[in-house]
Design goal:
The chain is of the alpha/beta class and about 200 residues long. The protein has a single domain (about 5-20, about 30-195), classed as Vaccinia Virus protein VP39 (Rossmann fold), CATH 3.40.50. Helices cover about 40% and strands about 20% of the residues. The protein is built from six helices and nine strands. It has helices at about 5-25, 40-50, 60-75, 110-125, 145-155, 165-175, and strands at about 30-35, 55-60, 80-85, 100, 130-135, 135, 165, 180-185, 190-195. The strands form two sheets. It has a seven-stranded mixed sheet, sandwiched between helices. A two-stranded parallel sheet has the order 6-7. The radius of gyration is 16 Å and the shape is globular.
Length: about 200
């Protein structure tokens, strides 16, 4: 197979790096990426944080492509990708300081988004952070005409997909023990939501 490539990953990696540089610290040891896609983000970001073990995950169909990027990079801190389907799977049995997911919430169903956030709440300890990147609606409104058109195209392809409401995501994250730290405005009408884990939910 040919190595997968995403032009969007190339466009958004530097703005996202700016956010990650403000969130990741020298004390952090492990990051779990949910929905690593092609693997481009994993190898680009891991190279910027050599002390951090980057654990990419995705559904089975994408693992081979991610492995190709990792193998070519020769980076020692990018771990072999593993399957993670939020509908059925749990996180790897490790302690993670950070969770990062980019452009997944509008692809997954809302039920799966809630499952993903519940996993974060169950597995991340106090002080850990979660970064969720992608397009969101605010107060029921799209932030651009292009996002409104994108949402329509998503729903035509899969009625369960679509751009999520920030308020719904924020409420679900709070329910699972997180507090919003920062809502970064990003290029192309996207956002990077940064949450900190406050407590365990009984």
């Amino acid at each position: 197979m040919n190595k997968p490539f995403s032009a969007a990953c190339e466009r958004n990696r530097d703005p996202l790096l700016t956010v990650l540089q403000q969130v990741i610290t020298q004390k952090d040891e492990r990051l779990l990426e949910i929905g690593a896609g092609t693997g481009q983000h994993a190898v680009y970001f891991a190279a910027q944080f050599p002390w951090l073990d980057w654990h990419p995950t995705d559904v089975t169909a994408n693992l081979a492509g991610i492995s190709m990027w990792i193998s070519e990079s020769k980076l020692r801190n990018v771990i072999k990708p593993v399957r993670l389907d939020v509908k059925t799977d749990d996180f790897p049995k490790l302690r993670f300081d950070l969770v990062f997911t980019a452009n997944t919430f509008h692809i997954m169903s809302w039920k799966d988004c809630k499952s993903c956030m519940k996993l974060m709440g169950n597995r991340l300890r106090e002080g850990s952070r979660a970064i969720i990147y992608g397009p969101f609606k605010y107060n029921g409104e799209f932030t651009s005409e292009s996002n409104a058109a994108f949402d329509l195209a998503l729903k035509e392809s899969d009625p369960a997909s679509g751009i999520r409401a920030f308020e719904d995501v924020n409420k679900a994250m709070e329910k699972n023990g997180f507090q919003l730290v920062e809502d970064f405005k990003m290029p192309a009408h996207n956002r990077a939501l940064v949450y900190r884990r406050l407590r365990f939910v009984g």
